[in-house]
Amino acid sequence: MKKVLISLVLLQVVACSNFSSIEKRRIGKIGDSEKIMPLFTNRDPDELRFLRLQAGPLSKQDMRSRTYATLKLRMLATVRDTANTGVGIAAPQVGISKQLIAVQRFDKEGHPFAFYVNPVIEKYSEEKKWGWEGCLSVPGERDTVLRSTEVVIRYRDQDSWQIVRDTVSGFTAVIFQHEIDHLNGKLYID
Ligand SMILES: [Zn+2]
C-alpha cells in the first residue's frame, strides 16, 4: 500500500510540470545553474522556426519545480554573459517555449534583472518613439524600431500567483515590448 502511495505521489509530481522532456534536458540540473544556455538565433532555420512559435503559459506548479528555478538562474547567466551581454531575455531564446522573460529594470535603483511570468501588455501608449535595438537572437545586427513610450504590463507574481499590473515607461518599456514580442514569436526585425 505504501509503495502504491509513493508511486502515486511521484506520478503527480511528474505530471505537474509543463516542461517537455526536451526542455528539461535543455535546462539541465541545478548544478548547471551558473552555465550559460546556447542561444537560438535567426541564422539557423530550425532555431528561427522555434523562435516563431507562440510560447505556452507557465502553471503554478511549474513555479515550484526545480526545473523552473534552474531555468531562471541559467537565463540570468546567459543574459549577463560578459562576452555577449543583453538587457533582457525571453525563454524561447534559449529553446524553452514558455512565457517567461527577464528584464533589466533601468527604472529601478541598481538596475536589477527581474523575471515576469506569463506577461502580457494590456495597454500601449499612443506616444511612440524610434529607438535602436539589438537582439541576442539576431547576432551582429542593430536597427531602429518604433515603440510605445509607456506600457501597462500584466503578469503573475511568481510567489503569490496573484495578477499584478505595472506601468512602465522609457527604455525599460522598450525592453518589455521587445521581450514580450518574443513570447508571441515576433522578432524586432519584423
Ligand atoms: Zn530579442
Please describe the topology of this protein.
Elements: H1 2-16, H2 21-27, H3 45-51, H4 60-63, H5 66-79, E1 88-90, E2 100-104, E3 113-124, E4 128-135, E5 138-148, E6 150-156, E7 163-169, H6 171-183
Antiparallel strand pairs: 1-2, 2-3, 3-6, 4-5, 6-7
The chain binds zinc ion.
Concise overview:
With 190 residues, the protein is an alpha+beta fold. Helix content is 32%, strand content 28%.
Characterise the protein shown here.
The chain has 190 residues and is of the alpha+beta class. It has one domain (19-183): Alpha-Beta Complex (Peptide Deformylase). It is 32% helix and 28% strand. The chain contains 6 helices and 7 strands. It has helices spanning 2-16, 21-27, 45-51, 60-63, 66-79, 171-183, and strands at residues 88-90, 100-104, 113-124, 128-135, 138-148, 150-156, 163-169. A 5-stranded antiparallel β-sheet has the order 1-2-3-6-7, sandwiched between helices. A hairpin with a 6-residue loop joins strand 6 (150-156) and strand 7 (163-169). The longest helix is centred in the first third of the chain and has 15 residues, at 2-16. The model has no long low-confidence stretch (mean pLDDT 92). The structure holds zinc ion. The site of zinc ion (ZN) has 5 residues, from helix 6.
Keyphrases for this structure?
190 residues, alpha+beta, Peptide Deformylase, five-stranded antiparallel sheet, two-stranded antiparallel ribbon, 32% helix, binds zinc ion
